Amino acid sequence: MKAKRVLLHVGTPKTGTSYLQDVLFRNRRLLADRGILYPADRFDAHFLAALDLMRLPWGGLEDEAVGAWDRLAEEVRRWPGTAIVSHEILAHASRTEIERALASLGDAEVHLIVSARDLVRQIPAEWQENVKHRRTIGYARFLTAIRDPQRRSRTASWFWAVQELPDILDRWGATIPPERIHVVTVPKPGSAPTLLWERFARTFGLEGIPLDLEVERANPSLGAPETTLLRRINRAVNGFVKPADYRPLVRELLAHQTLSKRTNSPRLGVPPDVRTWATAVAIGWVEELGARGYDVAGDLEDLLPDESGAPFFDPDHPRERLVNNAALDVIRALLLENVRLRDAEADLAGRLEEADRALGRAYLRPSYKLREKAVSKLEHGRLGQGVLGAYRRARGRSSRSA
Amino acid sequence: MTAHARAWGWVAHLTSGGTTPWADWTEAGPAAQAGVLPGAQHLELLRRLNLAGPTPTPLVRRVLASGAPGRGQQELGLVGVAETSRYGAPPVDPADLPDDELVRLASGVLADLVVSAPEPAPPRNRRPRLFRHEYRLAGNRLTADALRAQLIRDGRPPGGTRPTVVMLLGDLGAHLADTWAARVRRAFAPPWDDWIHELAERPQLPPRLDPVARARAWADRVSASRVHLALAPAAAGEALGVRGLTGPTRLSHAALDAAGHTKGVLRVLVNDVEREQRLRGVLLPWLEAGDTPTLPAPVVPRRHRGWLEHEARRIRAGLADAGYSVHGGELDQLLPAEPVRTAGPTDREVLTVMLRTLRVATMEGQA
Fold first, then answer.
1. Are B172 and B335 within 8 A, CB to CB?
2. What pTM does this model have?
3. I need a labelling partner for A331 at 20 to 30 A (CA). Which of A111, A357, B186, B197 fits?
4. What ipTM was reported for this prediction?
5. With contacts defined as CB-CB under 8 Å, which chain B residues touch A161?
6. Which of A291-305, A331-345, A359-373, B311-325 has the lowest average pLDDT?
C-alpha cells in the first residue's frame, strides 16, 4: 500500500504558484483517479484556508474563509493517498500557526515544498503585488522599508515573512526531516518556458499524468509605467471603491486584463545599490540552503541574480508619456466595459418593462380593482383604519404598508 | 546559567503572575524545558496583564497559545537569547515592542474568548401591549437603538401607520460620534478619521445623516405635527408618554477601536450572523465593563471644526424654520461644544482597554 502523504507547498509568491494551482484545480478529478487529492471546491479554496489559518483580513474575503482550514485538513486526513495543499501566503505563518496546521493534517508523511526565485526579481514583484492590493506606497519607500534591519513596518515584516527562504524553511521545516523538504527553483530568464512546470511536476509526482495545462487564471506581471499608473489609480479611488468592487474592476479588469497586456513597456527592476545588497543576501541564502541537504528541483544557482545590463526605470519618476499611454488603454478598457454594461442595462430595462406591462394587465382584473377601492376607502376613516389594522395584524407583519 | 535557562526562568515568572521586565530578569528557570520559547509579544502581553494582578491560568494558556492575527511581526525572539539564528526578524527587548503589536495579539486572544463564550441569551421582551403609542425613533442612531430596545422590552415595539416620530438630536459633534459608534457596534465601520473626513469633504451631510432631510422625509409621511425633536433621552420619553428611558452606554474612542480590531479577527472565526450576535451579546458588554471611564468618545478633528459648526448652524436653522415640537431644551444645543481633546486614542490607550477587557472576560469565567 502506498504511504499516506501530504505535499505542503507554502510559497513563495510570484514563483508560478497561480499557474500550478489552476492546473491542479482544473485537473482535480483526473488527479483523484490517480490517487492524488487536490481538495478544492473553488479555485481559491486553499487561499481561503490560509486566511483562516493565519486569521488574515483580506479586503472582506476573510468572511468566506470561516472554518476553511479545518475543512481542508479534514479532507486531507480522510484521503488514503497523496494530498496536495498549496498556497504561497502560507509562507507567512507563524510557529504557532504552523504547529496547528501540521497537527491538523493527521499522521500522514508531510513533505514541505517551497518554490523560490532570485531575490532581485522578487523585490519589484512584491512591490507590484502591494500595489495590486490597493496599497499606495512608493517604490523608494518600499525599498527603504525592506532594508530596515529591524523590519518594523508591516511592509517589511510581510516581505521577509514570505521571501526569506532560510527562515520560511526554519519555521515550516522545524519538525520535518531535510530529505522531505523540497526546494523548486524558478529557472533563470531565457530558459525553456516549460522548465518550471517540469520541476513542479517532478516534485509533486505529476509526471506521466495527461493533465490539461491550459489555465484560466494567472497572476501576470505589469511593467514599470503600468504599476505607476495603478498606484496613482489607488490613490484616487481608495477612499470610495469598496474591496468587493476593487477586485473585479481594478485588479482584474485594469491590472490583469488590460495593463498586463502591455508587454513592450520597461520592466520593473531594482536600482544598482539594491541589486548589490540583494545579491549578497541571495548568496548567503544559497550557501545556507546548500548546506542543509534539502532535495532541490532545479539548481540553487538559479537563486543568484544575474548581472543585468538593462537600465533601471524608476517607477516613482517615470516617463510620463509611457504612463499616459497606459492610461489611454485603461480609458479604452473602461469605455468598453461601460458599453457592455449599457447593453446589459438596456436588456434589463426591456425585461422590466415587459414585466411591468404584465403586472399592469393583472391589475386590470376586476377583483384587484375592488380590493384597491376597499382599501382606499378604509384608509380614509378612523373606523376603517382600525379594521384595516386588525386585518393586517391578523395577516401578519409582512402585509403591512412599508 | 545559559541564556535559555534565564529565558525559561522569565517565562515561569510571568506565568505565575510576575511583572519584572526582561531586561531586569536574572534568574534561571526551575528546570530545563523542552520546546520553543513563546514569542516576545506573548510574554510582554502577559507581563502587562500581570501589572493589574496575577493573570488567571486559563488566560495565561490562551495568551501563550494564541497566534497574532493579521499582518505584522511574527513571534519575535528575546534579545540575549535568540541571536544564534541568522534569519528571521532580529530579537527584541519586549519592553521596546510597539503597543500596536501588543494590540494585535490581544485582539486575537479577545476574539478567541468571545467565540468560546456561551451563546448570549436573547433579550427577554414583554409581549406587545394591546394599547400602545405608535412611534418611530430617528436621529441619533446609538440613542435610538438603546431607547428602542428598552421600549421593546417594555412591550412597546415601534411601528404603526401614523406614528409619532421622535428625532433624537444633540451636539452635532457628539451626534456624529454616536452615529459612527452605532456602526462599529453593528457591523463594518471604517476608522473614525476616514469616516469623518469623507463626510467633511461633502458640501453638507448626506440625506441619511442629515436631521433636516430626515425630519422632512418623516413630515411628508406622517405630517409635521407628528415629528418631535428630543434633545435628551428623557425628552423622548416625554414625547411618547413613557417614563424612565435612559440613554445608551457610550464607549470611549479607545474601546471602539478595540472593538474594531477584535471584530476584524471575528470575521475569520465565525459567520456574519453569529458575529453580530456575539458582538452585541458578548464583546460589547465586556468592553463596556473594561472601558476606561476617563477616556473620551470620538471627537471631530480640529481641521474639520469649521465644517462641523457650519453644518450645525444650517441644521439648527432648517429645523427651526420647519417648526417641529422641541423637547428637552433648545435647538442651540445642536451647536458643537469645544472638545477637551481633539486627537484620537493612542495605541497605549487601546491596549489598556483591551487588557482590562481580557480581565473582565476572565472574571466572568470565560477564559
1. yes
2. 0.85
3. B197
4. 0.83
5. 74
6. A359-373
